[in-house]
Specification:
Order of helices and strands: EHEHEHEHHEHEEHEEEHEEHEEHHE
Number of strands: 15
CATH architecture of the domain at 2-180 and 231-258: 3-Layer(aba) Sandwich
Radius of gyration: 20 Å
Bound molecules: nicotinamide-adenine-dinucleotide
Distance between the termini: 50 Å
Number of helices: 11
Strand order of the largest sheet: 3-2-1-4-5-6-11
Length: 373
């Protein structure tokens, strides 16, 4: 199939391109490279032996999309382009509306005009808001608490409406916390500036490009007091998207979580990373962030049923592949002028350093309420 992949040069998009090509599809990337590097398509080619087609432009540019859909005889779209930072969305909600919602509108109008009716949409666990029950099932109430989550839900609602008209085949995939990198180390999570997500911060602290990690909250009702999330390997996520494309042969409407179904705490992730990399990771506890919840992890049952997909890769593989990628891209960050905006609160600084393996069942609270150091 000829597949247009918006945001295909980004973190998730680049790994998805690799899997698309590996599965025998043709990948046409539409990306404005606002948060990805021009070199990414070449790296995809190095991995797969096949260069994706690249259309450099904005997902809000309907004329460009119309042109791309026709020129490359596109049969399906994977829509990943957009902004993804929760804190940024609170500072600049208009951009999230404009790019995430406006971009999706332009894409959908162009798809209707060109009669391209197969779509996989990258949604997010952010549509749920604070969990009322765990694991989070797809019918959990939707209550996004920030403009990012609201932008994702707004697009979901439009897709539901479109689906009701009977022409489209749509898969909405609610991603939990993708981490890791392709095992080649040629592509990975490469945010511009100081990363907002935990894993890229951890790996940059481990390699010495950031001085210390801030762990937000040590008094949550979790096994060790730090927040628990559902981390999944980005290659598992890439495979899920290809399986969603295929599943649309059988089903017109799919809406599933993509997670492992298991929660991992920040401190467990730090320990796993430290063991894999052999590096000390200094960290400091900081107050909880506004809007953060203690635990958030997916029910993975519906994805298994609808996509015949489950996340296969372990936390160790997520850390190993991130570290491999980080070491390979070492030179990129050897800029002495790189600002370190993370304040050092020295009185409570700790190090995570090969402190024995974490609990096998991270969702279980320690009976005595003792903090794992
Ligand atoms: N990474 C996560 O933790 C996560 C979790 C849940 C959902 N998602 C969703 O998955 C998608 C991809 O996320 P990612 O982590 O790969 O992000 P990313 O920032 O690495 O990739 C997004 C890509 O979209 C491109 N882009 C941004 N604005 C654009 C525009 N106006 N026109 C064209 N291209 C544009 C960027 O250049 C980038 O290559 C996003 O929609 C995000 O909301 C991500």
């Amino acid at each position: 199939m000829n597949v247009l992949i918006t945001g295909g040069a980004g973190y998730i998009g680049s790994h998805t391109c690799v899997e698309l090509i590996r599965a025998g599809h043709s990948a046409i990337i539409l990306d404005n490279f606002s948060s990805s590097k021009d070199s990414v398509p070449d790296q995809i080619a190095r991995i797969t032996g096949k260069h994706p087609i690249v259309v450099k432009g904005d997902v809000r540019d309907e004329v460009l999309i119309l042109w791309a859909l026709t020129s490359y005889r596109v049969e399906a779209v994977i829509h990943l382009a957009g902004l993804k930072s929760v804190p940024d969305s609170m500072l600049d909600p208009d951009s999230y509306k404009d790019i995430n919602v406006g971009g999706s509108d332009a894409l959908l109008r162009a798809m209707v005009t060109r009669q391209v009716y197969r779509l996989v949409y990258a949604s997010s666990a952010a549509v749920y808001g604070p969990p009322l029950s765990l694991p989070i099932k797809e019918d959990h109430p939707l209550a996004p608490r920030n403009p990012y989550g609201q932008s994702k839900l707004s697009v979901e609602r439009k897709l539901e409406e479109l689906s009701g008209q009977g022409l489209f085949r749509i898969a909405i995939l609610r991603f939990f916390n993708p981490v890791g990198a392709h095992q080649s180390g040629l592509i990975g999570d490469d945010p511009c500036g100081i990363p907002g997500n935990l894993m890229p911060q951890v790996s940059r602290v481990a390699i010495g490009h950031l001085p210390i990690l801030q762990v937000f909250g040590n008094d949550y009702e979790t096994l060790d007091g730090s927040a628990v999330r559902d981390y999944l390997h980005v290659m598992d996520l890439a495979i899920a998207q290809i399986q969603a494309l295929d599943a649309l042969d059988r089903q017109r409407w799919i809406r599933v979580n993509l997670g492992t179904g298991r929660g991992v705490s920040v401190l467990q992730l730090l320990r796993a990373f430290s063991e894999v990399s052999g590096k000390s990771i200094p960290y400091v506890f900081a107050p909880r962030r506004l809007g953060d919840t203690a635990q958030c992890y997916a029910s993975a049952e519906l994805a298994l049923k609808d996509l015949q997909w489950r996340a296969e890769r372990s936390l160790e593989e997520m850390c190993k592949d991130t570290w491999h990628w980080q070491c390979k891209t070492l030179n990129q960050y050897q800029d002495p002028g790189l600002p370190s905006k993370i304040p050092v609160l020295s009185s409570s600084t700790r190090m995570v350093e090969d402190q024995g393996s974490a609990s096998k069942n991270p969702n279980e609270r320690h009976g005595n309420g003792k903090k794992v150091p």
